[in-house]
Amino acid sequence: MDFKISDELVAFRESVRAFADRDVAPLVDEAERNQRTPVELFGKAGKHGFLGLRYPEDVGGAGAGMVAEMTLRMELSRVCAGIASALSVSSHLGSYPIFAFGDAEQKERWLKPILAGEKITCFGLTEPAAGSDVRGIQATAQKNGSGWVLNGRKIFITNSPICDLAIIIAYVDKDAGIDGMAIFVVDQGTAGFDSSRRLEKMGHWSSEIGEIVMEDVEVPSENLLGPERGGFKRVMQTLNGGRIIVAGGAIGVAEAAFDSARKYVAERDAFGKKIKDFQAVQHKLADIALDIQAAKHLTNWAAWLYDQDRNPSWEASMAKLYSTEMVLRVTDLALRLFGGYGYIQEFPIERYYRDARMFNIVEGVSDIHRNIIARSLSL
Ligand SMILES: Cc1cc2nc3c(=O)[nH]c(=O)nc-3n(C[C@H](O)[C@H](O)[C@H](O)COP(=O)(O)OP(=O)(O)OC[C@H]3O[C@@H](n4cnc5c(N)ncnc54)[C@H](O)[C@@H]3O)c2cc1C
């Protein structure tokens, strides 16, 4: 494998850590308790260039690529997975379709303010009756003069309760099958568009998710991203990068759990010695270290392939599947090392354990990634 962590990336990681410690960490307890995203962080992240890392400079990005983007999610997730997830929608899922399929005017109007942290975006694909089965979505967009009328419901949409605009996937022609799907932008405040309903969830409390209801939402033709047809392929292209970034988030939470467990076992006494001196405890920590390292290698590799324009698909699925299953194993083992305190909110390990549960659901459940990997085996 001929990728390596460059000196620039090491320096970048330090700058993200400094941002996380200085600007994010002080907000975490309140944001988690109130289950609200600290929206002021979008502007701060934008000023540091963290929302446009992977995009070229001419659209307001930093041109740093997917390895940097994934590293950002990893480092922010060490401090708070929920906040990292909210910011990540602006830096990828909710901005990539505008970057990749939008024209110059659309980039100027929506992408630049998203990357600057002035506008918050979301990505509306999942519906009450269709998640993994993207073809099964029901949302429609009907031609109305030169514009479109959108109808449908989206659910579990990260940032929808706080969004200024939404990327919406809908059928323009259901009879044409997946070829009849298209991607739209809907601005907050458009008549018939309601994204106010929040959903309560198990973890990632500081990341708000919700429902979007669209009833005869009229948008002009300028709100269509790319051609009228072929949206399915463009959605898959968007998700492909997102999977590598989510893998980074899972690794960040696993590292946070590892760090906190290492600290705890060095301080806790039982049977007249520190619990770190029990070989069974050391073996758990060895298993954790190995699992995290394996996930990092897979994920850095997939991100690196992405940056080489090698269009990783099963490779991204391997990184996503392994990392998001790994974080479940790691947070479980780490929590065990805390004994009763693992179950009490005095230590962040219980948050890591809850937060870990999300990663293998979003951007394709584990079974979908096993399907993609199996397909690549030409069985
Ligand atoms: C916290 C959170 C944030 C989210 N954010 C967003 C967002 O910002 N935007 C967005 O659009 N969506 C978002 N989602 C939705 C998420 O992407 C979907 O929940 C996910 O894709 C799974 O879809 P589903 O819930 O419909 O499950 P289903 O598709 O109903 O799957 C349920 C189960 O059925 C099985 N299954 C389904 N299909 C197959 C198959 N082909 N092979 C084998 N087994 C299968 C699996 O066991 C799977 O776990 C979010 C979800 C959560 C929980």
Q: How would you explain this protein's 3D organization?
A:
By secondary structure, the protein is of the alpha+beta class. It has 3 domains: about 5-115, Butyryl-Coa Dehydrogenase, subunit A, domain 1 (Orthogonal Bundle); about 120-230, Butyryl-CoA Dehydrogenase, subunit A, domain 2, CATH 2.40.110.10; about 235-375, Butyryl-CoA Dehydrogenase, subunit A, domain 3 (Up-down Bundle), CATH 1.20.140. It is built from 11 helices and 11 strands. The strands form 3 sheets. Strands 2, 3, 6, 7 and 8 form a 5-stranded antiparallel sheet that branches. The chain has a 4-stranded mixed sheet with strand order 1-4-5-9. Strand 2 (about 140-145) and strand 3 (about 145-160) form a beta hairpin. The chain is globular. It starts with 6 loop residues before the first helix and ends with a helix. Bound molecules: flavin-adenine dinucleotide. The site of flavin-adenine dinucleotide has 21 residues, from strand 1, strand 3 and helix 11.
Tags for this entry?
11 helices, alpha+beta, globular, 379 residues, Butyryl-CoA Dehydrogenase, subunit A, domain 2, 5-stranded antiparallel sheet, Butyryl-Coa Dehydrogenase, subunit A, domain 1, Butyryl-CoA Dehydrogenase, subunit A, domain 3, binds flavin-adenine dinucleotide, 3 domains
Could you write a compact summary of the structure shown?
This protein is α+β, with helices and mostly antiparallel strands and 379 residues long. It is built from eleven helices and eleven strands.
Question: What's the arrangement of secondary structure elements?
Answer:
Elements: H1 7-34, H2 40-47, H3 65-79, H4 81-93, H5 96-101, H6 104-115, E1 121-124, E2 140-144, E3 147-158, E4 165-171, E5 181-187, E6 193-194, E7 198-199, E8 209-219, E9 224-225, H7 231-267, E10 269-270, E11 273-274, H8 279-307, H9 314-337, H10 349-356, H11 366-376
Parallel strand pairs: 1-4
Antiparallel strand pairs: 2-3, 3-8, 4-5, 5-9, 6-8, 7-8, 10-11
Helix pairs in contact: 1-3, 3-4, 3-7, 3-8, 4-7, 7-8, 7-9, 7-10, 8-9, 9-10, 9-11
